[in-house]
Amino acid sequence: MIKSLVISFLLLANLQAVANEEAWQALEKTALAARHLNYRGIFVYHDGAKMRSVQINHMFTHGREMTRSLVLDGKPREVYSEDGEVVIYNAKQNRVVVAKRRGENMFPAILPSNLDNLRATYSADFEEEELIAGRLATVINLKPNDVLRYGYRIWADKEVGLLLKMALSNADKKVLQEIGFTQVEVMEMYANTVHAPKLDANKEYVMERPLDVRHVSDWVVGNLPPGFNKVDQLRFTPPGKQHVVNQMIYSDGIASVSLFVEEIAKGRKAHMGHKSMGSTNLCANVVDGYQVTVVGEVPHKTVRQIAGSVRLQKRSNQLK
Amino acid sequence: MKEQLSAYIDGEFDLDNADHLVANAKSDGEMREAWQTYHLIGDVMRGENVTETPMTDRIMAALEDEPTVLAPNAMKENTKKPAKTPVVWSVAASVAAVFFVGLMLLQDQSLNSQDAMAVEMAENETSDYLAAHQQHAPSSAAYFIQNASFSGKK
């Protein structure tokens, strides 16, 4: 009797592990689908306060990925990307401001191609299938293993794997942000003309001031939450200001956090405190006379932990 | 814009400022054209920056100053002129006190900072950081929800 109970328990545990592994494999398929399929459609983003519709055209051909996105609400904006390089066109009266960005994790390519980092800090489970934008979707719950990140609910197209919708929720299961297709079409190929930019000869195109991407390694986070790695660092001077701001970006594979460090110049007010804006939390601290500000799509606890453990790592030749 | 493009084609701009264009021109296919054009614009404009035309700055300054609003609470904060509230002033005072006490009281400072970090900040103190985060950090929808004016803050 006891023996058979133990066996059935082990069998159940094993089945659970297999199911989890299958969920991860589905997520891997979803991560690739967003990059390797041709699709077009309209997706909607909302976070309880703001809503935006975006028309997206994505094509993958000869190993290269091209995306053209048009923001349909608010200010006119066009985002064009190829292989992770992003060019943004912000139309403003008779001018268009052109900005270049590093582009990863943009909807529907939210999941990283390598899920190892996520496997270390989240667990994945299947839920009941649902319809999204008229397509049958496999639903996967990506649950964090600690309280330092949000949960992600992922709707992936059952047939082709494409991410159809994602919802971000906190520990109380309250949905903080949703982004998903209302209409989508997956194609074999489509005309290249879709990707032709809409250029207006009557408008002046202005390049945004380039960023100074320099190596800054004097600042360390003593208590960085597990799974987070530094993915980028840059320096810039805010418009209309004189001082330089260091920005370090950390990611656990899906959530990202920015750490800003700047000198507190004479006459400038130092800030301490926190702010919560939908899924985004911010925490400001003062460390060794520097203003430290942490912002990210993570719970308050996480930004606070980072802001509270930032230290200036003095190099040996700088010690006086 | 037409003049800028033709200037580029006429060789009046340094090729070093248009490496993307050169690289892309080498690959074939009709679909490359769109991407090339995008790069061309950017690279030509960067040429303008090299000659220190204060154009970008002026345009940035003229862009509409619209704070990033992500949550209903943030919207409410904004209409309350939070910088004038006593709460914020008391934070400023405590921060100033912490700041001038000096290195000898580092231990106390960290204790104070734990308290101070619990205070809610005002929209105008946080919007610049939020915008910079959305623009530089990889995230699902940042490019679509951020302000049209990247450097609109004066």
| Mean pLDDT over all positions of chain A | 85
Distance between the termini of chain A: 73 Å
- The Rg value of chain A, from CA coordinates, equals 22 Å
Identify low-pLDDT runs of chain B. 1-31, 44-111, 147-154
Structure explained in plain terms:
- The complex is a heterodimer of chains A (320) and B (154).
- Chain A is of the alpha+beta class and 320 residues long.
- Chain A contains three helices and 20 strands.
- Chain A has a twelve-stranded mixed sheet. A six-stranded antiparallel sheet of chain A has the order 14-15-16-19-18-17, with helices on one face. In chain A, strands 13-20 form a two-stranded antiparallel sheet.
- Chain A starts with a helix and ends in an 8-residue tail after the last strand.
- The model of chain A has no long low-confidence stretch (mean pLDDT 85).
- The longest helix of chain B has 19 residues, at 32-50.
- Chain B is elongated.
- Chain B is mostly helical and 154 residues long.
- The interface between A and B is large, with 98 and 77 residues.
Please give a quick description of this structure:
The complex is a heterodimer of chains A (320) and B (154). Chain A is of the alpha+beta class and 320 residues long.
Task: Give the SSE map.
The complex is a heterodimer of chains A (320) and B (154).
Chain A: H1 2-36, E1 38-46, E2 51-61, E3 64-71, E4 77-82, E5 85-92, E6 95-102, H2 116-121, E7 122-132, E8 135-144, E9 151-157, E10 163-169, E11 175-187, E12 204-207, E13 219-221, E14 229-236, E15 245-251, E16 256-263, E17 273-277, E18 280-287, E19 290-296, H3 300-307, E20 310-312
Parallel strand pairs in A: 6-12
Antiparallel strand pairs in A: 1-2, 1-11, 2-3, 3-4, 4-5, 5-6, 7-8, 8-9, 9-10, 10-11, 13-20, 14-15, 15-16, 16-19, 17-18, 18-19
Chain B: H1 2-9, H2 19-26, H3 32-50, H4 55-62, H5 72-79, H6 86-101, H7 106-116, H8 123-136, H9 142-145
